[in-house]
Amino acid sequence: MAKGKYKYLFKNMALFTISSFVSKLLVFFLVPFYTSILTESEYGIADVMQSTLLLTVPLLSLNAGEAALRFGLDKGADHAEILGIGLKRVLISDITALLLSAAVYIFRLGTGLGPKKEYILLFFILYVCNSFYEYMLLYCQGTEKVQIMITGSVSCTFLVIICNLVFLLVFSMGLYGYLLAQMISFLGSGLLIFMLLGGISELKNIKGDRSLQKEMKEYGAGMLLYSTSSWVNNALDRYYILLMLGTAENGLYGVAYKIPAILTIFQRIFAQAWQMSAAKEFDEEDRDAFFSKMFRVYSAIMVLGAAGIILLLKPLARIMFQKSFFEAWVLVPPLLISVIFGALEGFLGSICLAFKDGKSIGRATGLGALVNIVLNYFLIIEFATMGAAIATLISYFVMFAAAYIMVRKYVKLEVSMRKNFFAYALLIVEALTVTVNIKNFYLINSIIVLIIAILYMKEIAAFIAKIIGKKDAKRNI
Fold first, then answer.
1. What's the pLDDT tens digit per position in 28-54?
2. What is the per-residue DSSP string for 149-218?
């Protein structure tokens, strides 16, 4: 049974790796292209629109995609019914987004985006395309149609690359071309997934299960605090910077996230596969041991990954950040460390959601969001964009700590937090040596990376042994 758990997890990780390698890395390599063509202000406006989607899609659809993912993994789930219920929620959310956009236009709200009112229309179209695409991805994940999900994700990447090359390089459309490329890629890939799933045939089989509809709606509504608080931690700093420092500074801050996105690639691969495993294994007798092993290894890989990226930060920034965007490199270390705590909180959150408990993890995330709201204001006044990065790091740590406490009602994690905190302290020292440009920081940071590697050697070695099937692996993890 235990072997099957790892096989299921690694099979999905392998599939998601293919998707992320193609999708995330290709988009990652486009960053120099974007920063050479778009201005800081244009990039800042696009970044705010995309950040707003992270809030509005789950909020207006009542987390329809997350509900489809969780209920789709239940034994004997009626997938056709789930598809119909979710698409209905997405359609209702589109209508709501239209009414809200009209209100913003009529009452002249949202002037922080700039004087051009067409931004409101562009955002609404972007919302419709993105909400449909995101729902289809999560529905595929919930119904374990991972191959179709990957096909849709990769097609989205290729569409956005081709369209950006045409709209930005050939027609020089600037911000409008960038947003149009996003719309085409989301809508085109969403429709492709729908067709590959045989969506029309599926919808013909729906029976109107009111009980399931109510359960999914209640589950999604129960996750609103979690999803909204997650958005606050992910995106609120952009709005503070936009309002307090302007679109140019927001553009620099937005591009600074592109280097932490290297670590986020692995985080997303694992998180997608783990969410499916957690939902399937939450009622197993040996769940404590299984979840503990995965937490230890996940933490080790995230910390090691962050340490390696900080070591190579300046060369990476020179390659990725063109022109005046280069100065954004100094914001990367705190944002990179915050990715670790966000990933670990997501791991713990998946355990709570496996028990269909969005409220507990919502409270943990809400606490982090509250800290974020307060600290962003005061730290930005004092330290400008660096203040926002520090506020994000602190709020993610608070969120992780609270989630660690919340999850104990379901799982007893056997983890050495002393060792983890020592590793986190080493990361902060490494980040400081780079930021203040201490002499011989490459040598110092190489030693720090080596110490962290030694610290987690046992976890990584035992995990590799588990993968290849050594019998003593269980004893060593």
1. 667 778 878 888 888 888 888 988 898
2. HHHHHHHHHHHHHHHHIIIIIIS--HHHHHHHHHHHHHHHHHHHHHHHTTHHHHHHT----HHHHHHHHH
Q: How far apart are CA 176 and CA 35, in angstroms?
A: 15
Cα–Cα nearest to 71, from 195, 190, 213, 208: 213
Give start and end residues of each alpha helix (H) in 30-145.
31-37, 40-60, 64-72, 79-106, 118-142
**Could you tell me what percent of the chain has a pLDDT over 90?**
43
pLDDT band with cut points at 50, 70 and 90 for residue 26: low
Domain boundaries, the chain: 226-477
Residue burial 199-233, b: 16+ Cβ < 10 Å; e: rest = beebeeebeebeebbeebbebbebbbbbbbbbbbb
Q: Please give the DSSP secondary-structure letter assigned to residue 413.
A: -
Residue keyed to tokens 């590793």: 423
Dihedral angle, C-alpha 53, 403, 387, 304, nearest 10 ° = -100
What does the alpha-carbon distance between residue 369 and residue 364 come to, in Å, rounded to a whole number?
A: 9
Average pLDDT along the chain: 84
Q: Are 70 and 144 in contact (CB under 8 A)?
A: no
